[in-house]
C-alpha cells in the first residue's frame, strides 16, 4: 500500500493547494509514482494539474477529483501508487474527516496569524476523533506563507503557540510567502521546476522532516 498524505485546515487562504502540488512535485522528483487528489470544491489543484498536462516537457502528475466520503477512493488509489496526496477544503468538511480515517499523515498548514491559529482547538478535536478510528494517523502543523521580512516576528510567536498542541508534531521548517510559489503555480509547474533555491529548500526540508521523522 502506498502512503496517503492529506492536506487539510479549518481556514481557507493558507496556501494549502500550493503546498499540496509542491509536495507532489517533491515526491515525483524523488522518482515516486504519485496521484494528486483534489477533494476541495474550489478545484485549485485540479486546475493546476490540467495546466500542467498541456506542457509535454513536464513530468506528468496524474490527478482525480473526489468529494463526499473519500475514504474508499484514497484506499483504492493507495493500492496503485507509491503516494497519494489529497487536498481538502479549508474548513471542517466531510472530505477532511473521511480522509483522515484512512490517511497516514495529516499536514495542516496555517498562516502565522491569530485568525488561523484560533482554528487549531477545533482541528485538534477532529484529529483526535479520527485517531480513535485510525490510531496510526500522524499529524503535523506547518507554518505556511510566513512573512519574509525578518523584523516581523509573527512566525516565532506562532511557533510557541503551536507547541500547546502536543497531539501534533510541529514542523520546524517554515514555508515563507514567496512570489516564486505563486509564479510556478500559474504555469503548471512545481517549485522544483523553478529558479528559487530558497523556496525549493523550504519544501525539501519540510518533506525530509515529515518522512524521516
Kindly estimate the percentage of residues that lie in beta strands according to DSSP.
15-25%
H-E string: EHEHEHEHEHHEHEHH
**Biggest β-sheet, characterized?**
7 strands, parallel
Q: How many helix segments?
A: 9
The shape, in one word, is: globular
The Cα radius of gyration reads 16 Å
CATH third-level topology:
Rossmann fold
State the helicity in percent bands.
40-55%
- In angstroms, what separates the terminal alpha carbons? 20 Å
Total of domains: 1
Number of strands: 7
Low-confidence parts: none
Question: Can you walk me through this structure?
Answer:
With 213 residues, this protein is α/β, with parallel strands linked by helices. It has one domain (3-204): Rossmann fold (3-Layer(aba) Sandwich). Helices cover 42% and strands 18% of the residues. It has a seven-stranded parallel sheet with strand order 3-2-4-1-5-6-7, sandwiched between helices. Helix 1 packs across helix 2. The protein is globular.
Quick structural summary:
This protein has 213 residues and is of the alpha/beta class. The protein is 42% helix and 18% strand. The chain has helices at residues 16-29, 44-53, 71-78, 94-100, 114-117, 120-133, 154-162, 179-186, 197-212; strands spanning 3-9, 34-39, 63-65, 83-90, 105-110, 138-143, 169-170.
Write the layout of secondary structure elements.
Elements (H helix, E strand, L loop, with lengths): L2 E7 L6 H14 L4 E6 L4 H10 L9 E3 L5 H8 L4 E8 L3 H7 L4 E6 L3 H4 L2 H14 L4 E6 L10 H9 L6 E2 L8 H8 L10 H16 L1
Parallel strand pairs: 1-4, 1-5, 2-3, 2-4, 5-6, 6-7
Helix pairs in contact: 1-2
Amino acid at each position: 500500500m502506498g502512503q496517503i498524505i492529506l492536506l487539510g485546515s479549518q481556514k481557507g487562504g493558507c496556501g494549502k493547494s500550493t503546498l499540496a502540488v509542491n509536495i507532489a512535485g517533491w515526491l515525483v522528483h524523488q522518482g515516486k509514482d504519485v496521484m494528486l487528489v483534489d477533494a476541495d470544491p474550489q478545484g485549485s489543484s485540479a486546475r493546476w494539474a490540467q495546466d500542467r498536462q498541456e506542457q509535454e516537457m513536464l513530468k506528468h502528475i496524474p490527478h482525480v477529483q473526489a468529494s463526499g466520503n473519500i475514504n474508499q477512493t484514497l484506499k483504492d488509489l493507495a493500492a496503485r501508487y507509491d503516494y497519494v496526496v489529497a487536498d481538502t477544503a479549508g474548513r471542517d468538511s466531510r472530505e477532511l474527516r473521511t480522509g483522515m480515517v484512512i490517511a497516514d499523515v495529516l499536514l495542516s498548514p496555517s498562516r502565522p496569524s491569530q485568525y488561523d491559529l484560533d482554528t487549531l482547538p477545533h482541528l485538534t478535536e477532529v484529529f483526535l476523533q479520527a485517531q480513535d478510528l485510525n490510531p496510526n494517523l500522524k499529524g503535523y502543523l506547518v507554518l505556511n506563507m510566513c512573512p519574509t521580512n525578518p523584523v516581523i516576528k509573527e512566525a516565532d510567536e506562532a511557533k510557541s503557540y503551536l507547541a500547546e498542541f502536543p497531539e501534533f508534531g510541529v514542523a520546524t521548517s517554515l514555508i515563507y510567502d514567496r512570489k516564486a510559489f505563486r509564479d510556478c503555480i500559474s504555469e503548471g509547474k512545481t517549485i522544483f521546476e523553478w529558479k528559487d533555491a530558497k523556496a525549493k529548500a523550504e519544501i525539501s526540508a519540510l518533506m525530509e522532516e515529515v518522512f524521516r521523522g
